[in-house]
Design a protein that fits this description.
It is a single chain. The chain has 340 residues and is α+β, with helices and mostly antiparallel strands. The protein has two domains: 91 residues; 228 residues, BirA Bifunctional Protein, domain 2. It is 44% helix and 18% strand. The chain is built from 13 helices and nine strands. The protein has a seven-stranded mixed sheet, sandwiched between helices. A hairpin with a 5-residue loop joins β6 and β7. The chain binds 3,4-dihydroxyphenylalanine (DAH).
Length: 340
């Protein structure tokens, strides 16, 4: 009775083991027949219930079946392992005589590209490129620029104050004063750099962005001079006539002050998130330097005057490359950066 049951079990196990399509199926078969709770183990446990005269014979038979199945299992398992090894070797095969693909060279950040372009333009016009600290004093960032402590213009630039009373500069304009102190008049400088404002971040606002400050001081500088430089600037950047408009603008450090807007190049003026659906983007505030600012820099306003401008470098980059979200610039996403 048990004999026929055993031989039936054996032939079922053999066919499952021999035909297992992969090592998972093979493992399943092993657990079913050879596992700790498998069929053979169960029969083994019931041996004690057998009559003494059957026990020896069945025991031998059980052992033979077990050995047969184990051997088949092992040879099938070895075959699967060899197959896996071979396909891995085939997939990971490496021809060491092939030339290496080479490292992909990095690319310059669009801000760097535009900054360099502008530095080249302005140095060709006789301007020096100067630098200033990102951690500034209240004096250079505000007071020296004709923005006294009670002035409402201070609230317009949400400032990151540091615990020692200094601040993260809210604009590049403090470099105007530092440059006047250092070089005196006449003066032609640009100062590109990073500025910081405690702003809510969205598609067109970042807490950290870039400006490029410009200043020219000489004798009898007029708005006509200023316009000439502003137009050269925009033509150089956009390689075409950009549509601009000039509005009166108020900045304590210039008088008169202007706001030069450029028609939005993302949407062509029809309205989009970058231009806040107005069709225009404020790009280039400028004006004639206020006498108080010249005095702060140690320059006599009766002898000299000049113009200044504060170009929104980040905005400009977005216009130039039709980038619709300012957050792309600092996100470090290679899919974005590799386009430049
Ligand atoms: N500093 C100003 C700002 O960030 C921009 C600015 C306006 C700079 C007029 C200038 C200027 O030099 O003349 O809001």
């Amino acid at each position: 009775m048990l004999d026929s049951q055993l031989s039936e079990l054996e032939s079922r196990a053999v066919s499952l083991i021999d035909s297992a399509p992969d090592s998972d199926a093979l493992e399943k078969a092993r657990v079913e027949f050879l596992g700790r709770k498998g069929s053979l183990a169960t029969i083994g446990k019931d041996m004690g219930k057998l009559a003494a005269e059957d026990r020896g014979r069945i025991g031998k038979l059980l052992n033979a079946v077990k050995q047969n199945l184990e051997a088949r299992y092992e040879s099938r398992q070895a075959a699967f392992q060899l197959g896996a090894l071979n396909s891995r070797l085939a997939a990971e095969w490496l021809d060491l005589t092939m030339p290496a693909p080479g490292a992909r060279p990095g690319s310059l950040h669009p801000l760097t590209l535009i900054q360099r372009e502008l530095e080249e333009l302005f140095t060709s016009l006789g301007f020096a490129v100067v630098d200033g600290p990102e951690v500034e004093t209240e004096w250079y960032n505000f007071d020296a620029l004709n923005i006294p402590p009670t002035h409402p213009a201070r609230d317009a630039q949400d400032t990151f104050w540091l615990s020692d009373g200094s601040l993260l500069r809210t604009h590049t304009s403090p470099v105007q004063v530092r440059a006047m102190e250092k070089f005196g008049a006449p003066l032609r400088i640009i100062a590109p750099g990073r500025v910081f404002r405690n702003e809510e971040v969205d598609a067109s606002h970042e807490h950290t962005f870039y400006q490029l400050e410009g200043m020219m001081i000489d004798r009898d500088v007029s708005i006509a001079h200023m316009l000439y430089f502003m137009k050269s600037l925009l033509t150089a950047i956009f390689h075409r006539e950009a549509t601009v408009r000039l509005r009166p603008g108020f900045f304590p450090f210039v008088e008169p002050g202007f706001e030069l807007d450029i028609q939005c190049l993302i949407c062509g003026g029809s309205g989009c998130p970058v231009c806040k659906h107005s069709g225009w983007v404020e790009l280039l505030p400028c004006g004639l330097v206020h006498p108080n600012v010249l005095r702060s820099g140690g320059i006599d306003p009766d002898q000299w005057n000049g113009f200044a401008f504060g170009l929104g470098l980040t905005r400009l980059v977005m216009m130039r490359y039709a980038i619709d979200d300012i957050r792309h610039l600092a996100a470090g996403d290679l899919r974005f950066l590799q386009q430049f």
